[in-house]
Design a protein that fits this description.
62% helix, mainly alpha, 4 helices, 146 residues
Length: 146
């Protein structure tokens, strides 16, 4: 049983092992046939504009709406974020930036006011609890408690 090396595509490749590019080219010629005309191929250039990332701050707005919705600023910021996302989907990047900027400003104010009012509430709650416990201990001492 003799084994002889035969090329996959018989032809010009006798002695030199074929490369992938050569095989691919021969396969394309075999499938498509020889070129019909000698006219140069035309090229088409498609310009795809890079989409500028416009942050719409929708997650931040949703967080402020759910957790720190003092004075409804979080809800208004969420509405502006949705408007910004809608403008971005339409392709109006200028409008999207404007709405996103407003949403960011409202989110900052909602966060700052939310934190300040929460801290103030905690301080008043702790101070009130201390005052009530002190008043109760004084009342107990005044009426003959231990």
């Amino acid at each position: 049983m003799s084994r002889s090396c035969q090329p996959f595509f018989p032809g010009a490749h006798t002695g030199v092992p074929p490369t992938y590019e050569m095989l691919k080219e021969e396969h394309e010629v075999a499938v498509l046939g020889a070129p019909q005309s000698s006219a140069p191929g035309t090229t088409t250039v498609v310009t795809i504009r890079s989409e500028t990332a416009v942050p719409d701050h929708i997650v931040w707005s949703l967080f402020n709406t759910i957790f720190m919705n003092w004075c409804c600023l979080g809800f208004v910021a969420f509405a502006y974020s949705v408007k910004s996302r809608d403008r971005k989907m339409v392709g109006d990047m200028t409008g999207a930036r404007t709405y996103a900027s407003t949403a960011k400003c409202l989110n900052v104010w909602a966060l700052v006011l939310g934190l300040l009012l929460t801290i103030t509430f905690i301080i008043f709650f702790v101070a009130g609890s201390l005052m009530i416990s002190q008043t109760i201990s004084e009342v107990i001492k005044q009426y003959g408690g231990p």
